[in-house]
Amino acid sequence: MSAFAELCASTNFSFLRGGSHPEEMAAQAKALGLAGLGVADRNTLAGVVRAHVAAKEQGLRLIVGARLVFEDGAPDCIVYPHDRAAYARLTRLLTRGNLRAPKGECWLTFADFLEHAEGLRTIVLPGRDLPPCGGGGREAAGGGAAQDMAQAAPSRFLLHRPPPVALRATPSPQGGGNMTAHLSAIREACGQVWLAAPMRFDGEDRRRLRVLKEIAQQTGARLLATTEPLMHAPERRPLLDVLTCIREKTTLASAGTLLAKNSERHLKTAAEIARLYADAPEAVRESLRLMESVDFSMDDLRYEYPEETAEGFADPQSALEALSWAGARQRYPEGVPEKVETSLKRELSIVAKLKYAPYFLTVADIVKFARSGFDKDGNRIDPILCQGRGSAANSSICYVLGVTEVDPATNELLFDRFVSEERNEPPDIDIDFEHERREEVIQYIYKKYGRDRAGLSAVVICYRGRSAIREVAKTFGFSEDRIGALSKALHHWSAGVSARDLKEQGLDVSDPHLAACVKRARELHGFPRHLSQHVGGFVITREKLHDVVPIQNAAMEERTVIEWNKDDLEALGLLKVDVLGLGMLSCLKKALDMMERCYPEWRSEPSPPLRGVDALHRRQGEGGRANTQAAGVLDRPPPPNPLPARGRGSPPALTLSVFSPPDDPRVYSMLQRADSVGVFQVESRAQMSMLPRLKPKNFYDLVIEVAIVRPGPIQGGMVHPYLRRRQGLEPVSYPSPELEAVLKRTLGVTLFQEQAMQIAIVGAGFSPPEADKLRRAMATFKRVGTIGTLKAKFIDGMIANGYRHEFAEASFRQIEGFGEYGFPESHAASFALLVYASCWLKCRYPDVFAAALLNAQPMGFYAPAQIVRDAIEHGVEVRAIDVNLSDWDNTLEPGPVAARRLHARHREMEGDIRSTHALRLGFRQAKGLKQEELEQLVARRGRGYDSVRDVWLRSGLPVSTIQRLADIDAFRSLGLDRRDALWAARGLNRVGGQEDLPLFAEGVHPPPPRGAGVGGGGRANDPTLDASARPPSGRF
Questions:
Q1: Which member of 58, 136, 734, 1022 has the greatest number of CB atoms within 10 A?
Q2: From edge to edge, which strands make up the β-sheet containing 77-81?
Q3: Above 80 in pLDDT, residue 332?
């Protein structure tokens, strides 16, 4: 029996051209008994990692490459790298084409290919118009390049911006249409070349095979058998047609010859291929010969993290140990607790074995930059507030390096949730920065490591329920009304739609076209649509990044994106760090800056006291010196401080540690009343409903509060049992003494992912890697159904360890309830710090909190007007926008402040509030104003404007902006109400520099009624409030 390897397969990562997932192609190739599979998608390596992982699971030999489509008319080529060096040349080639083209396109020429061709096993694909036998091997110019893989010739030119003329005018043979010349050029560059002889079942296969054999003999090329499969099975042909129509923006009824002529472009057995190529058996054998000549595998990628951050030390591990112990002594100036010392030693040992030290150093360097007060070019800037979160908060190393703020001395951390030597998985650290300044951090990374060594990871944008059914319905020619009804019948995250849902939308379930549309949409669900950029997942390499993975342009300027997403990176063991933006950090940083300006004595308040790093900085400022010598490290000069250095007499660092310890009872009293408008994470209606029931009294209660109002605990039936036990309405019980240690802090109820992992380990006998697999399944089971495969092992393991079957089933149902919505405890703890910090500010300084929150918009649940109203109810005097008094941002003004008036429900806070400033609303709060114009108005204000015309002449604002300022009643300081200001603004002109002449010597209009200066003329939505808009005193 003959053997065969299909080496011209494409997947659905040839976006909108392939009809099957890489995993489906690998599974089908194995099921058909193929000797191997070659996956090559159109100008991309985006799907090769998935194919690689699937092939390893199937035990299938896989080679990976790309199908190169040229802009100069050269025939398409499929290339497979022979070794690691050739793979790097391929990724550099694709990067060149990507970076010279707009996002989502790749412009390559045949000359580009020849420049990188060494070590690439190349298969040339013939075009559609072959000459007759004896024709010398000539074909119509561009016959290969202009045809796409779904037989839709015009697609590349209809959908994409045309490439520059220079790319389309390369001289022959690099740009010509001569097949013989191209084959000869490739053979000269590579030493050998293959010519594909595809079977297309179009009635021309025999003639085509004879012609191609003749061309191969003339050029020394080797003939290769293939069906150029676009799908794993013929049943996908209808979906392939739909994909073609989506790509070409047409309907199935109008597509005509754009559609595939038959269903034969699928994987076939070796026996069928042998029958088809009975006249050329050598073409079948060549598939095996070519495959065996490729030595490269994705497993050959050996990732090495940059080591710049280890300068001054013997190696990265020495640097990490020194900096960690130095940071520990800064975090705990009165002595490192034994618990922390033990965890640090264990973590450092694991990191040393796994050689992850450079990764931790790189992350610490990024955090240090953010807090340093210097930009990427070394210029002094305001420090950037940041905090690590997610599983990284389980690490004592991250805490002492200043990356995270969850104190391991007072919290139970599960380092194995973050890094484990028992599973082959790199760590993943998420760091939140001020959302308005995250770009500064991103550009620092590019500046330090170079764009050839750093890039953002990709996100694969896939078709989901509604997007899939809408796109498919368009190809069926359905009307917009019918498409809308179909979309409404589909639950947002569902891959299918029921007959009942269709009937409810008035659709005829017996319509075969409707049934076909729904079926195609279900098949399209989960198909990749295009690549987008991750919000902040950075990959940084020691070698050139484009030697590891192709790089693309991003939609945003000064950004570059690699072709792999986070799952691909994880599968290959490539480390990344997530540089994320968080609005509340922007709010807190603005608030801390205001506190330093307006309430410089706030740090000396008895609550909350300074501790940790900030206490150390203060002591250093008074002349003290901390011991930074690492325990167990050879004598050397003190290592660099991993946290931002402060000079003698400088103020303490503005980090979240200024709010430690989080134990102010006034804050928890405020939260128990659900007074949480604007407070991070607990401002939603659901959280406000939970706060009076849970009644948080300490920091760990906040951790639970953050985690419990999530679909995971709710769907797992965990919320009510926990509340009943907390309120003493139900006894606290544990299934076993072993599980009591796991569940004690949550009263015997599973609330966190870490607890689910520990139950699997302690109760069901899972190993840590198996428990981590369960965690992953919890995060994906709704999408791919993987958790079911672990159910039997979990239940059997618990029964074997003496637990009742009913309890085992109930435990698993709880775990299922997490889905992709359960919080890790470490993540909840990181967010709980932000809850406490924002609530403390609101409790003690509501004027500062309101101003900072307004300046950090857009963020959170509430509109600016609601934030302003809440500030007023907490006794803050709010002053309206004014051309002589307002800045672009909201500001605080010193007294005289009117006597504080609190809403009745907040009166018990009277003694807690320290605010003594009024809130002056900034121009940013009014719609229709441009920041650049209003900053110009402020800069030219001097000692103030004295008339509307003076504002106009000195500020240079257009009349339309002056009118808008009048419309929001911003001229009160000039003695003008809204109506008078509007009349003045509308009468402006520049004729001779003179004032406009009035029609009458005196005004004849009656004065406006009370309140007209606030809500009239479209001001109802503006949060600019004057005295008439204040709530009546009777309400208080």
A1: 1022
A2: 5-9, 36-42, 62-68, 77-81, 120-124, 194-198, 222-226
A3: yes
CATH number at residue 205: 3.20.20.140
| Share in percent of the chain as helix, strand, coil (round to 5) | 45, 10, 45
Q: What sign results for the dihedral spanned by CA atoms 384, 388, 389, 393?
A: negative
Rounded CA separation 951/957 (Å): 8
Is the C-alpha dihedral spanning 262, 266, 269, 270 positive or negative? Answer: positive
Question: pLDDT-based confidence at 904, cuts 50/70/90?
Answer: low
Q: Provide the domain limits for residue 501.
A: 464-525
E strands along 739-807, which residues? none
Does the pLDDT value for residue 154 go beyond 70? no
- pLDDT for position 609: 38
Lowest mean pLDDT across 296-305, 623-632, 867-876, 984-993: 623-632
Instruction: State residue 657's pLDDT score.
Output: 77
d(CA 79, CA 154): 24
Beta strands per DSSP E along 856-963: 878-879, 891-893, 918-920
Residue 945 lies in a domain: yes
Where does a domain end: 282, 300, 318?
300
Strands of 436-527 (E only): list them: 454-462
C-alpha 263: how far from chain center: 38
**Helix/strand/coil for 153:** coil
pLDDT over threshold 70, residue 152: no
CA neighbours closer than 13 Å in the CB half-sphere of residue 917: 21
pLDDT attached to residue 486: 80
Question: Closest by alpha carbon to 837, among 861, 824, 859, 853?
Answer: 853
Where among 249, 271, 300 does a domain terminate? 300
CA–CA separation, 1018 vs 271, rounded Å?
76
Residue 52 half-sphere exposure, CB side, CA atoms within 13 Å? 21
Least confident of 300-314, 863-877, 925-939: 300-314
Task: Compute how many other C-beta atoms are within 10 angstroms of the C-beta atom of residue 500.
Answer: 9
Amino acid letter, 763:
G
Helix (H) or strand (E) holding 89: helix 84-99
Question: What contacts 787, CB < 8 A, 6 or more positions away?
Answer: 774, 777, 778, 780, 781, 815, 816
Task: Give the whole-angstrom CA distance, residue 213 versus residue 1030.
Answer: 89
Give the C-alpha separation, 176 to 79, whole Å: 20
Q: Which of 922, 864, 866, 869 shows the shortest CA–CA distance to 893?
A: 922
Q: Which residue has better confidence, 537 or 55?
A: 55
Cα separation of 657 and 648, whole Å?
A: 20
Asked if the structure places residue 718 within a domain, the reply is: no
Q: Are 319 and 401 in contact (CB under 8 A)?
A: no
Q: Which one, of 253, 287, 251, 247, lies nearest residue 267 by Cα?
A: 287
Identify the top-confidence range among 224-228, 338-342, 443-447. 224-228
- Let me know if residue 404 belongs to a domain: no
Average pLDDT rounded to a whole number, residues 273-284: 95
Dihedral sign computed on CA atoms, order 372, 375, 381, 385:
negative
More confident position, 376 or 469? 469
Query: What is the pTM (predicted TM-score) of this model?
Result: 0.80
Domain-embedded: residue 287: yes
> Residue 77: what are its φ and ψ, rounded to 5°?
-130, 135
DSSP state of 1001: S
Q: What is the pLDDT of residue 499?
A: 76
The total of structural domains in the chain comes to 3
Q: Which residues of 217-249 are buried (b: 16+ CB within 10 A; e: fewer)?
A: eebebbbbbbbbbbbbbbebbbbbbbbbbbbbe
Q: What are phi and psi of 696, to 5 degrees?
A: -60, 135
**Higher-scoring residue by pLDDT: 710, 439:** 439
Query: CA separation (Å) from 43 to 69, 149, 209, 850?
Result: 6, 12, 27, 51
